[in-house]
Amino acid sequence: MSGFSVRKFYDELADDYHLMFRDWDASMAYQADVLGGLVRTSLGAGPHTVLDCSCGIGTQAIGLALAGHQVVGSDLSPVAAARAAAEASVRGRRLPTAAADMRQLPFRKASFGVVLCADNSLPHLLSGQDVRAALRGMRRVLRDDGLLLITVRAYDESRRTRPTGTPPQVSETCDGRVVTFQLWHWHEDGERYDLEHFQLTPAENTWRVRVRRSTYWALTSPQLTEFVTEAGFTDITWHGPAAGGYYQPVLTARRAPAARSRSADPG
């Protein structure tokens, strides 16, 4: 996907990912409430069968499972996926997980009512070919009229301003304060950037510094809308943070039945 290994990035981050949240369980509940509300609006109360195809350590998947949905998680990082299953179990929920590339989802056709790809995961795919492969796979595992949810950074603004990083975020933990921030290094094409993720944790009167690196494609909303349409989805809607209440822009779309989109579904 990039010059940096995406799997390595998340394998190394898996044990510490929760430290980016001031209160991880509260964030699970908040995100499940907002995303679950979008699911209810489109599909009704449920419960629904959900695939979180970039589940990470389970922030969205566990929250949705706690809300009563039947959730399966998959992630490129086997370390993160294993932690998601373990964290769900600690909270009294079963969350089956698999280590899987979103471009090659190992699930049967029409297995889910909802497919979720959250936390700016899709932009790890750096070419149109890879984005198309992932979206076609998500469509394949959705039932007719099933719901796709994708959350990404607000890249329309970032492409104009080319930020060089993010402000430091300080979280309180049982072991002291944790400081997290990012540096962004834009490529010459103005669309892709290398990210350095810094995490500072207390260590015997000094700071332990961890740096992880990955690359992203800053897909604008028109670009992603075009890819999603091409993959055979309809009723595409963007929900901005101000209106939708989520911390990132959310795209929702419905899987067009085969009769309406034969060319997008090879089988």
Automatic annotation (TrEMBL):
InterPro entries xref list: Methyltransf_25, SAM-dependent_MTases_sf
Organism: Streptomyces liliiviolaceus
Lineage: Bacteria, Bacillati, Actinomycetota, Actinomycetes, Kitasatosporales
Pfam families in the record: Methyltransf_25
The Methyltransferase domain, residue ranges: 50-146
Protein name (database record): Class I SAM-dependent methyltransferase
Assigned keywords, A-Z: Methyltransferase, Transferase
Biological process annotations from GO: methylation
UniProt-recorded Gene Ontology molecular function terms: methyltransferase activity
UniProt xrefs under CDD domains: AdoMet_MTases
